[in-house]
């Protein structure tokens, strides 16, 4: 098992939907600073994060762009083929998280940002990926 831990902020508007089996799913891009400098700036890592079930529903109620979090979970990779070329999509299946701001700041952020987008299409379509193999839709 490959466990990843990091701190950072939600980088893009979270997407709340359900898998084809009806399981609630929350997905978002997460930005983390690295220790690698390029010029005067530190590079950032962007990780695709996904969470399922009732915990995803509860998290979707308050999560917004800019929300600071400490996260951990299992790293997974899906393989698919596009135009005859093998492609890899890596994601973090969120297991644990800790909010890193007070409720007052979170509420202020919530007022200034919208809640996660609720969509009818799956993460595969949203990210332009084909629906192949055993992936997170099977949970």
From TrEMBL:
Pfam families: SSB (PF00436)
InterPro entries associated with the record: NA-bd_OB-fold, Primosome_PriB/ssb
Superkingdom of origin: Bacteria
GO function terms (MF aspect): DNA binding
Record keyword DNA-binding present: yes
Keywords: DNA-binding
Classification via Gene3D superfamilies: Nucleic acid-binding proteins (2.40.50.140)
Signal peptide: none
Descriptive protein name: Single-stranded DNA-binding protein
């Amino acid at each position: 098992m490959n466990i990843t831990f990091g701190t950072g902020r939600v980088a893009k508007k979270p997407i709340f939907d359900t898998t084809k089996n009806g399981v609630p799913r929350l997905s978002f891009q997460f930005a983390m600073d690295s220790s690698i400098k390029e010029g005067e700036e530190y590079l950032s890592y962007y990780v695709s994060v996904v969470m399922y079930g009732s915990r995803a529903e509860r998290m979707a109620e308050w999560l917004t762009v800019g929300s600071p979090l400490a996260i951990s979970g299992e790293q997974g990779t899906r393989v698919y083929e596009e135009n005859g070329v093998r492609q890899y999509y890596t994601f973090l299946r969120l297991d644990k998280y800790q909010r890193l701001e007070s409720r007052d700041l979170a509420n202020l952020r919530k007022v200034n940002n919208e809640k996660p987008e609720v969509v009818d299409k799956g993460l595969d379509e949203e990210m332009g990926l084909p629906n192949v193999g055993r992936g997170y839709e099977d949970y």
